């Protein structure tokens, strides 16, 4: 940093000069604040989720009101059919915003829908957001992944980063992909 503005990044002992830095929160822990915790459980299954008509993929949201919680529980399932797992296998993620000191217990209603679970991997991570917009320092920091599994917040974060970095809105209208998609519909 020079006069509060980014000038270079140091990596593996080497200095790389830059005018802007765009990164996730893990690279600049002093430029972010914690807004809570997210619990995620990745589960390996050898069967489709019950009551989904043997679906190869599904998304389930358990509403917070149904569980007397402040946050919904999100379940996403993909399978061998999508080339993300071995033949006959399914990968499920269950996540929510942690509200207690026992986050794994908080996702139990989602885990119950997946039983029997062959193996599970539990992680609890902080939900980090940038302290400022980055315009003064030219250090533009994204948010960390939230508890949802539909990537709405991440898409909004990308558009916000683009707006902060360039000063203009990210617009897909007029792009070749958008034009070809529209012409196929016409």
TrEMBL record:
GO terms for molecular function: GTPase activator activity; Rab GDP-dissociation inhibitor activity. Its main location: cytoplasm. Keywords: Cytoplasm, Golgi apparatus, GTPase activation. InterPro entries: FAD/NAD-bd_sf, GDP_dissociation_inhibitor, RabGDI. It is found in: Cytoplasm; Golgi apparatus, trans-Golgi network. One of its GO terms (biological process) is vesicle-mediated transport. GO terms for cellular component: Golgi apparatus. Gene3D superfamilies: Guanine Nucleotide Dissociation Inhibitor, domain 2. Belongs to the Rab GDI family. This is Rab GDP dissociation inhibitor. It comes from Cynoglossus semilaevis.
């Amino acid at each position: 940093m020079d006069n509060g503005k980014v000038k270079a990044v140091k990596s593996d002992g080497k200095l790389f000069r830059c005018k802007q830095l765009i990164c996730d929160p893990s690279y600049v822990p002093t430029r972010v604040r914690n807004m809570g915790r997210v619990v995620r459980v990745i589960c390996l299954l050898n069967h489709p989720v019950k009551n989904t008509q043997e679906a190869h993929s599904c998304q389930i949201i358990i509403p917070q009101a149904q569980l007397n919680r402040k946050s919904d529980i999100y379940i996403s399932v993909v399978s061998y059919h999508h080339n993300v797992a071995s033949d006959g296998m399914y990968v499920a993620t269950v996540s929510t915003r942690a509200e207690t000191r026992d986050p794994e217990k908080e996702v139990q209603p989602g885990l119950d829908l997946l039983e029997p679970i062959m193996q599970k991997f539990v992680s609890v991570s902080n939900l980090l957001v940038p302290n400022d917009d980055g315009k003064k320092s030219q250090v533009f920091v994204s948010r960390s992944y939230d508890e949802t599994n539909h990537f709405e917040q991440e898409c909004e974060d990308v558009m916000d980063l683009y707006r902060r970095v360039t000063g203009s809105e990210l617009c897909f209208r007029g792009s070749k992909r958008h034009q070809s998609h529209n012409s196929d519909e016409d």
